[in-house]
Amino acid sequence: MSEIRDFDALRRAMAENSEQPEGPARNARAERLLVEAEKLNIPLAVIEALGHQLKVYNYSSEKDKMFVPFARLLRMWDERPEDFDEYETHSLHWVFKWMSAGMLDQPHIPLASIEKWLGEMEHRYRLAGHSERAVRGAEFSVAAHVGDVERAERAYAAWLAADRDSMADCHACELNGQGWWQAERGRPAEALQLWAPVLGGEFTCAHEPHSVLASSLVPLLRLGRLDDARAHHLRGFRLVRSMESMRGAYADHVEFCALTGNEARGLELLAERPAYFTDTGHPRSRMDFMSVVTLLMDRLTELGHGDQQVPGPAGRAWTARELAAHARGEALALAARFDQRNGTQHVSERVRARMERRPLVERLVLGVRSERLAHPVRPVAPAPVTPASATTGQEPDLAALLAEARRLSDSLQPNAVEAWAAVARAAEGTDLDARDRAEIADHEAMGLGPEGAELFERGAELYAEAGDPGEALAARARAAYVRALAGHVDKAVEAVAGLYDEVLALYAEDGTGVRQIASVLMGRARILMRRVHEADDAGAGASQETVLAEAEAAAREVLALVEGHTGNDVRLAARAAEARAMLAELAVHHGDVEKAADLFARAAAAYVEAGLPWFAVEYEARLAGLAQHLGDTGEAERALRAALEHGGPHLEATGRAQLHLQLAEVLGGRGESAEAAEHALDAAHWADEAGEGPTFGVWARHLLGGFLLRQGRWAEAAEVLESALPDLSAETHGDGAIVQTQWWLGDCLSELGEHRAAAERRLQAAEIARHWPEQHDHATLAHLAAESLGHAGLPAESDQAYARAGELWRSLGNVHGLVRSLRARAWLALRTDDCGGGETARELMAAAVHECVSALSTAADEESRQRLTVELGHTHRQFGDLLARSSAEDAEDGSIRAMFEEALTEVEEAVSVFASLGADARHARTGAELAAGWLAADLGRSGEAAARARAVLEAYADATEDDEAAQERRAEAEQMLRVVREGREQEDC
Questions:
Q1: pLDDT tens digits, residue range 755-777?
Q2: What's the whole-model pTM score?
Q3: How far is Cα 330 from Cα 326, in angstroms, rounded to an integer?
Q4: Which of 232, 263, 530, 730 has its CA 20 to 30 A from that of 269?
């Protein structure tokens, strides 16, 4: 730090330090600045340096250091109040409140001293003529802290009844405290009602809505407002993440994770702030933090993760179980110190209650990326198999298990394989007949998929032994099909051809039934469909046409066999539905999309009609894709909603994620961003559950961020998009997805005022887009990055980016982009021209005018001419504004007048250009007209100014009251006439 030589340098240094991140480094610099202030031998300099030191301590983890500088300030006030200017006098009385809260948060300060301080504060406020509102608010805090509810209610009422004055906390902070009390008293709805103006952005301050967003989390969960709770967590955590002084609010977010099934995210939050475990400058927030650490660690231990390594105090490794014990001890020890000071057990009771809270939601999906715990969290399991005969508490017998398994398999229920597995377990050591053993083997093979061929063959032998040759052939057909699934398609085709001949002969002799022959025919059709897919990989040709024809004939043969025989037989109904789905698949191969969509719809409807809706899901999903291809988004939406409904609890996580993702894309494409965001959120969750977070899970997060952005939910969108970026890869998702995510994130950060970060994201996206053949995105991103760099206070970098964007716009023939980049550079040049005069700014703005005029002379069509004319009008208008502002304050009157004359000429040009566009440019023309009027007034041309004002009034003679722009223009014109009139009257006097 350079030596401070005068008061102004000290003030600049303190202002710069105030902008630094909260923490020990900023505090240490404030301490050094106080030393420098003392060297100046100016009492006010020391007072301001002490006030600065006090402020940075208050907004840090070293709050316990506040008392020394304040005591010194108070002593200086008592000795020489004339050394304090008006601002420092106000500040001294203002921070009395900080001292009250600060004492309360330090258990080593006796309660009697705090009460004495309250009296001192009341006395000094009365002497200074301040309302007792702040005093009663401080008294309320003391009473609430020690658990004196009766006194707290009295003080609360007196606080609200007292007049607001300059010593009252800001509206946001007051509402925070009032809402906290309502929540503390078990009135969450009332708390949220009080907090609403803060949450809505009506009242804000340095720590609000940060604190209110954190405080609102548990009340929202208790009221079941889960969407709001999610939004407040994502939005609020972003605000407190970098603020060292907000450990208490940070703890609320950790608690939220523990109460909503987001334990893994809770661990990530702890890992971000290791110092929070050990910072001792604010015991109260440390107690709160250790309380929720205990809650989270106990929850992990309860879920079976007690031995998992977790973030904790530096210096050793911690398991969840160990950290729980440590944090509990720390929290209770701190609570005991407060209670010893207060003479109550209130703080310990609150801490224990917080540590013992139970989850309020089993799992609240957040949409952000989070590392998973050691095992899948709360997977959706199929419903347990419960035999219909098991109506008592006893274990069902084998006969009951057999009957239930046959009921489930005959009706094609999803849990049939599990039911037969239960039969197999119960049958160990018993002597079953061949039929029973055949069915057990058959269903065990079904559960093995491609690995079940040998068991199917064993089942076939047992069916034959049981005297059912038709079922034996069906089992062999199933064996052939799973071999085809394993890649042995030709052998499967050969095997099923023989089985086909055998079953036809058997059926002709009445040796088997429709079910069995249908099973063999369906097995053959499935195998031939596998050969179709194999032929797809091999490419087109005559053999492929033959394969398609054979598969189609096989599917139609199944249909011809079972139609008219289904009755109440769901197995046969399922065969007919599957055969139609095969024909739909073949129609896709032939390019007949409409026929395919119709057949998929009929297949799905047949499954639903048969009472087998879970089988319809695959075909409804296919139908949705085809409907999108045909441009029928309504049908696509209907099919996807039906698939989700029909799949119900039987849908696996992967399938559920894909359906939600498809539906999100359909709804988002129609502009229904709110519901699309809900489905993208569900898609991200189920993708994570399926272990597909880095693949289509991150795509769902990418979409979710975009949908939130469309709704103006900038902070939530930023959190989601930032969490998506690490998993996005050009190989899996394409570099376009990375660019779009960075682009959206830059837009969010810009809206949030994080301009430097926005510029970084936009520049990163531009660097990728730089290598694309089409350069429009590159140009747009370079332009946006330039805007962000300008807002971030980096004019040189901003000008460089605008220049690059301008070159790109020129190469693309985009005059509008080029002109806007030149205008932006002109304004930058005006702000950074230390020499005055703004010659560079003038040259750039003149270049912008020239580009517009040149483009207009070669415009190809009327629409282009209209747009370029509008651009020219705005450029003349901005040129005039720039010239008017470019006069140096200390310039001679003649120089200023000449500059105003030139500015008026440019604005008059803007008026003329906009007038040529007629009614469509009325607002732009009148705005320029008013600007010209004010310039004329400044130049002493009152008649011209009045004429322009009257022209604006005439332009809006027919305007309605609901036309806000017209009413604003009329009001300004009338104001101009008043100013002109008053100027003339003064001249007459």
A1: 999 999 999 999 999 999 999 99
A2: 0.86
A3: 6
A4: 730
Burial of 770 (0-12, 13-18, 19+ CB in 10 A): middle
Task: Give the side-chain half-sphere CA count within 13 A for 9.
Answer: 11
Q: What angle do CA 94, 98, 99 make, to 5 degrees?
A: 110
82 Ramachandran zone, left/alpha/beta (phi>0; psi -120 to 50): alpha
Contact assessment for residue 101 and residue 64, using Cβ atoms and an 8 Å cutoff: no
Burial of 687 (0-12, 13-18, 19+ CB in 10 A): buried
In sequence order, what are the residues at sequence separation of 6 or more whose Cβ sits closer than 8 angstroms to the Cβ of residue 738?
725, 728, 729, 730, 765, 768
How far apart, in whole angstroms, are the C-alpha atoms of residue 809 and residue 610?
62
The Cα 711–Cα 716 span in angstroms is 10
Q: How far apart are CA 94 and CA 731, in angstroms?
A: 58
- Report how far residue 856's alpha carbon sits from residue 872's, in angstroms, rounded to the nearest whole number: 9
Distance CA 661, CA 673 (A): 13
Closest of 35, 28, 105 to residue 67, by C-alpha:
105
Residue 487's contacts (CB-CB under 8 Å, 6 or more residues apart) are none
The pLDDT value given to residue 534? 86
Q: What digits encode the pLDDT tens for the residues 236-272? A: 999 999 899 999 999 999 999 999 999 999 999 999 9
Residue 804 has which token pair? 């690059």
Question: CA–CA separation, 76 vs 84, rounded Å?
Answer: 9
Q: For helices 96-104 and 133-146, give the axis angle rounded to 10 degrees.
A: 0
Structure token pair of residue 478: 């199933």
How far apart, in whole angstroms, are the C-alpha atoms of residue 874 and residue 953?
Answer: 21
pLDDT band at 860 (very low <50, low <70, confident <90, very high): confident
- Among the residue ranges 293-297, 406-410, 807-811, 985-989, the one predicted with the least confidence is 985-989
What residues contact 652, with CB distance under 8 A and at least 6 apart? Answer: 690
Q: Residue 389 carries which DSSP code?
A: T
Specify whether the CB–CB gap between 326 and 311 falls below 8 A: no
Percent of the chain with pLDDT over 70: 96
In this predicted structure, the answer to whether residue 880 has a pLDDT above a threshold of 90 is yes
Q: What is the DSSP letter of 834?
A: T
Q: Is 310 helix (H, G, I), strand (E, B) or coil?
A: strand
Distance of alpha carbon 236 from alpha carbon 199, whole angstroms: 10
Residue count of the chain? 989
How far apart CA 749 and CA 751 sit, in angstroms, is 5
Report how far Cα 548 is from the mean position of its chain's Cα atoms. Answer: 47
For the record, the structure tokens of 497 come out as: 């051809």
Exposure letters 333-357 (e unless 16+ CB within 10 A, then b): ebbebbbebbebebbbebbbebbeb
How does 309-321 read in b/e, with b if 16+ C-beta sit within 10 Å?
ebbbbeeeebbbb
DSSP string, 936-970: HHHTT-HHHHHHHHHHHHHHTTT--TT-HHHHHHH
Q: Give whole-number Cα distances, 508 to 465, 497, 511, in Å.
A: 22, 17, 7
